[in-house]
Design a protein that fits this description.
This protein is an all-beta fold. It has strands at 10-11, 18-20, 59-63, 70-76, 83-88, 94-100, 104-108, 115-123, 126-137. The strands form 3 sheets. The chain has a 4-stranded antiparallel sheet with strand order 6-5-8-9, with no helix packed on it. The radius of gyration is 25 Å and the shape is globular. The termini are far apart.
């Protein structure tokens, strides 16, 4: 592989002003960019705030899988949880519905037969959006 020199440039979000510009590094830094480097710098009149971005994806997790009598339903990346988790069998029939309102919920599935089920969560405030996962129930 070919090693080439690199540079670092920090700019504002609008890419107008350069806050910190890369320099030509010589000696111990030459062609070693990326292996570890600390650069001290100050910020003059530039804003220092950083807008947080969502790093967690939105999702529904069911476990254990396969399950027998109980299944955990965990929600990730939602600001508000209030809706229904609907268990549907492979023929599309609703087998069980449970109200959910927390990041972690436990559903009693002891009455459901062995088989593969889809679990769909529909929020009260977004009835057209669904989170879905699959679950194998094995007795």
């Amino acid at each position: 592989s070919t090693i080439t020199a690199g540079y670092l440039s920090v700019r504002t979000m609008t890419n107008v002003a350069i806050i910190m510009n890369g320099y030509s590094y010589y000696g111990t830094y030459n062609n070693d960019f990326g292996c570890g480097f600390t650069q001290q710098f100050t910020i003059g009149d530039y804003p220092t705030g950083v807008t947080p971005t969502a790093t967690e994806t939105v999702g529904l997790e069911s476990y254990p899988n396969p399950a027998k009598d109980f299944v955990n339903l965990d929600f990730h990346g939602l600001l508000q949880i209030a809706g229904n988790a609907v268990f549907t069998d492979v023929l599309g029939r609703v087998a069980f519905t449970q109200r959910v309102d927390a990041e972690h919920n436990v559903a009693d599935i002891s009455r459901l037969a062995t088989g593969v089920y889809s679990i769909s969560y529909t929020a009260d405030n977004a009835p057209d959006s669904k989170l879905t996962t699959r679950l194998l129930i094995q007795k």
